[in-house]
Specification:
This protein has 1 helix and 12 strands; from the N terminus they run H-E-E-E-E-E-E-E-E-E-E-E-E. The chain has 174 residues and is mainly beta. The longest helix has 16 residues. The chain is elongated and about 95 Å long.
Length: 174
């Protein structure tokens, strides 16, 4: 018999605690003038009437329209509308004391998962990255550069070849 009373009491308590629609809120002002709120009534507290809780009904998955497959580009069409080198510009000349050259690219749409940029300088792959390409210690002189988008070791798309001249300081030997 005691067990049954304990179960009923526990069920009633849990129903009150986890039922916000049945919760009552009380408001009062303490001796210092602070407004306080509680779910426990006390002397001088007024009961606040709360609006009903907001309820959002989610649609059933069976009521949702079927998702279409992602749009695939035509086999004849390149996967990127825009793929070009912004810096260095074609036929440009610039200084780099360290010989480091940061390549800036424009690509649209953004790189797809699994795709990476690859910098080919004078016919040799020099750097690969998903973000900024930086060529380290490039010798002074005129160079050709192509930026490629690669995936799984295959070239997906390439920029036109650009030519630039890198100028570096030289220490005069005596």
């Amino acid at each position: 018999m005691d067990t049954r009373i304990l179960i009923v009491t526990t069920a009633l308590m849990l129903g009150t605690v986890f039922n916000p629609a049945g919760a009552e809120i009380y408001r009062w002002v303490d001796e210092q003038g602070n407004v306080e709120y509680s779910d426990t009534p006390r002397e001088g507290a007024e009961k606040i009437d709360l609006p009903p809780p907001a309820v959002i009904s989610m649609p059933k998955p069976s009521d949702l329209p079927a998702r279409s497959a992602p749009e695939q580009p035509d086999a004849d069409e390149p996967p990127y509308r825009t793929l070009k080198v912004r810096f260095p510009q074609d036929q440009s000349a610039f200084f780099s004391g360290s010989g480091d050259v940061t390549i800036l690219t424009d690509v649209d749409p953004p790189l797809r998962p699994g795709h990476r940029f690859q910098a080919v300088l004078d016919g040799q792959v020099m750097a690969t990255s998903r973000d900024t390409l930086t060529l380290k210690e490039v010798f002074r002189g005129t160079h050709s550069l192509v930026v490629q988008v690669v995936a799984d070791g295959k070239v997906i798309q390439s920029t036109p070849t650009i030519t630039f001249t890198l100028q570096r300081p030289r220490i005069k030997r005596q």
